[in-house]
Amino acid sequence: MKIIILSLVTITALFFTSCGGEKSIESQQAEDTIKENVDEVIPEKTSETSDEMTNKGIGPISSIELGEIDDALAMTGRELFKINCTACHKFGKRYIGPALAGLTDRRSPEWIMNMILNPDVMVVEDPIAKALLEEYSSPMANQQLTEDEARAIFEFIRTRN
Amino acid sequence: MKQEQSSNLLEQEINTQLNIYIMKKVFKSIFATSAIIALFASCGGPSGSNKGALSGNAAEKVYVAPGEHDSHYAFISGGFSGQLSVYGLPSGRLFRVIPVFSQDPEKGYGYNEETKPMLMTSHGFIPWGDSHHPDISQTEGTLDGRWVFINENNTPRIARISLKTFETEEIIEIPNSAGNHSSSYVTENSEYVVAGTRFAIPFPQRDMPINEMKGNFKGALSFLSIDQETGHMDIAWQIKMPGFDYDKCHPGRGASSDWFFFTTYNTEESHTLMEVNASQNDKDFIAAINWKKIEEYVANGGGTKTPAKYAHNNWDDDTHTATTTWENEVLVVDPTEIPGAFYFLPTAKSPHGCDVDPTGEYIVGSGKLAAAMTIHSFSKMIKAIENKSFDGDAYGIPIIQFEAVNYGMLTQPGLGPLHTEFDSRGNAYTTFFISSEVVKWNIKDLKIIDRHPVYYSVGHLMIPGGNSRTPDDKYMVAMNKITKDRYLPTGPEVCQSAQLFDISGEKMELLLDFPTIGEPHYAAGIAADKIEANTTKIYRLADNKHPYAVKSEAETKVVRKGNEVHIYMSMIRSHFSPDNIEGVKVGDKVFFHVTNLEQDYDVPHGISMIGANTSELLIMPGRTSTFTWNPKQVGVWPFYCTDFCSALHQEMQGYVRVSPKGSSVPITYTLDDEVPGTEEEF
Questions:
Q1: Which of B540, B572, B647 is the closest to A141 by Cβ?
Q2: Greatest CA span in chain A, whole angstroms?
Q3: Which residues of chain B does A144 touch, with a Cβ-Cβ cutoff of 8 Å?
Q4: What is the pLDDT of residue B55?
Q5: pLDDT tens, position by position, B269-296
Q6: How far apart are CA B515 and CA B314, in angstroms?
Q7: CB contact under 8 A, B577 and A87
Q8: Which string of DSSP letters, residue by residue, matches B107-124?
């Protein structure tokens, strides 16, 4: 795995690609705006902040009660994870998307569920998801999962955190 | 009354139409006059203003704001492109070209392994077709938005297109037919879709002198049953009609819904210089056929099973694969064996359109070489049959006396009437090819209400639901054969075009010109809300039953079988798995079986391989598709995604190493330098 990309480089590349040539004044301005946004939002780091853990994201999930890990549910989640998530995510290393190790320590359960279920809105409106899109360039794919399926995947993620 | 008036006017013609197929009249002078008028009309165009859409009011009526949706779908025939185009009304915006009878490299249709069987016929694989007349399925005489049917004229076929997926699901070849033109119209509960032959031919085909055509050629009219659940078609029966040319047809509705009406020309049964020799008779026929009686006759064991080889191609939405089934026989029905089911209605000269009004009472024959249009009455027809008001027969089929069936004539309507559709207020709208106009007239009064020039030489027109019991009469689209000066010139070949009219008022109002693909022969329109909510967004990966599908990257692999190499590949934003493949050799046949793992709306991916003698694949989320590649040169050759899919689309690429024939390089495949699926945990 050798993807080492500074977010700024990626953003510049993105604009260069989209415009297909020399930067116009508008794209330069847009780039500046994005740079400002990058400064404003919390960058993706392993350090835990209370802001990140209280952010529940935007989507159908407003609260989740967590009990002991449900092994059967986690097994279901494992199969769903394999089919729907592994093309972009690994636990131990950054891949197309972020590494998922330690995820439950830095994101709230609701945020994770909403990111799975409502990624289109999340990457536009949620500050953490926006920053992640800027860093990784590939948007989180909407895999059209049900709430039950997303819940099972989340249970599996808990077992690996 | 008008009937008397018209019968006086036409008395002479009525007398001459008896024994129509043996009598000859020289009409060369009239023909020549028509031709001169035609030339004049197409060169000069109609006089008067041609700037109908300049008013601000018209602009507002066709403006669909960015992000807003049109109120109607229009399915417009792609003509000699072989396809079916989907437009929005009132904006005239083109949304999609659905590949039907022709290969479409943009979508891989007819190029990828899965869709190639769709274009198979008894003559082998045919890459092109001439699509003509789309018709939307109906329930109780109203458009239901399940399927659209369309006919192919050149190699006779009927296709069924799903209005959930907007994809061609079935194509069936029509044997014993040639120039499949009198097609593909559905009965009012979609029991049958009909396919009539335009050209009379030997039935069954045989080696015989052309000039012995008369009496020896036949015209096949085929009724294809439609399975109400799946839409699957089968040729229920073929009627062996006299050897005339069958041009257009329409079902009855309401009281006349058991009947189907077909226009004929070349009742002269001429075999050469048809533009003169098939224009001799003052009247040809509308064939009135009681299909319910045939259905009953067939159910009771009637008809003769006759050998006929034809292809029946079905698309399976679970395996994403089409298969060709070879059919070996058809049930042939002899019209003389079913009394009461077949009649000929004399109709002014070489009628094209055969259109039944929403009440089912009026049958309009657009005699394209006649000075007046023929309007028959269904109730008079039934009475005439009861009273046996016949003028002899043609090949055993009774000819109903003209006065006994005719409701009246629309006199001096224009030149070259072709096709009529209807609104819900008792009005008909007829196209006139030679005089380049659409004429609105009242059916009961036979009075012309309005006429509007079109630019130029209009063929067909379409009112959404205008050939059903329930016309949705806000818009009318005229489809023109000649465009000339209406758009920026593009060399000698210019687009054909459509013109949109508002028909909600007394006068027709021209709103918009828009270009069309191929030749817009005919169209079917429907309110968007009957289709929009039912459209498919993605294909569920879990339901993918393609034999070479992969459900995750862990399942991707490369397998050698002799000189065949099968690549089980996946794609997701924005990489392929595997993306490095080695061990392929010159002379191998490499199959790329590629599954799009996305489950998000509007995220197709494409793939193409340098040197592959085929098109790209364009693969919808959840689907698997296959192309083949015969590597001919040693080297390392790239493949890439052809459909811009994400910010990292340019990075969506991979390499295949091609070694010399006989090389010992083993098959290997990796992604990120690892073999997919070999990691213990993710």
A1: B572
A2: 56
A3: 538, 540, 599-600
A4: 54
A5: 999 999 999 999 999 999 999 999 999 9
A6: 32
A7: yes
A8: TTBTTSTTTGGGGEETTE
Per-residue H/E/C for B266-324: CCCCCCCCHHHHCCCCCEEEEEEEEHHHHHHHHHCCCCEEEEEEEEEEEEECCCCEEEE
In this structure, are residues B479 and B460 in contact, taking their beta carbons and an 8 Å threshold?
yes
Contacts of A14 in chain B (CB under 8 A): 647
| Predicted confidence (pLDDT) at residue A23 exceeds the cutoff of 90 | no
A82 contacts B682? CB cut-off 8 A? yes
Domain boundaries, chain B: 64-534, 543-670
In Å, how far is B556's CA from the nearest CA of chain A? 11
Q: What is the pLDDT of residues B559-611, one digit of tens each?
A: 999 999 999 999 999 999 999 999 999 999 999 999 999 999 999 999 999 99
- CATH superfamily label, B543-670: Cupredoxins -  blue copper proteins (2.60.40.420)
B615 pLDDT more than 80 = yes
Q: Are B243 and B216 in contact (CB under 8 A)?
A: yes
CA atoms of A126 and B372, how far apart (whole Å): 70
- Give the closest of B554, B598, B647 to A137, CB-based: B647
- Cα–Cα distance measured from residue B662 to residue B320, given in angstroms and rounded to the nearest whole number: 35
Q: Is A139 on the interface with B (CB under 8 A)?
A: yes
**Phi, psi values for residue A10, rounded to 5°:** -60, -45
Contact A139 B572 (CB under 8 A): no
Chain B CB contacts of A95 under 8 Å are 672
Considering the domain delimited by B64-534, tell me its CATH architecture: 7 Propeller (2.130)
Query: For B376-425, how does the pLDDT look when each residue is reduced to its tens digit (9 = 90+)?
Result: 999 999 999 999 999 999 999 999 999 999 999 999 999 999 999 999 99
Record: contact A141-B600, CB cut-off 8 A: yes
Considering only alpha carbons, which residue of chain A is nearest residue B555?
A: A83
Contacts of B230 (CB under 8 A, 6+ apart): none
Task: Taking residues B364-385, report their average pLDDT.
Answer: 96
Q: What pairs with residue B348 in β-bridges?
A: B283
* Enclosing H/E stretch for B234: strand B233-242
Helical (H) or strand (E) element with A152? helix A147-159
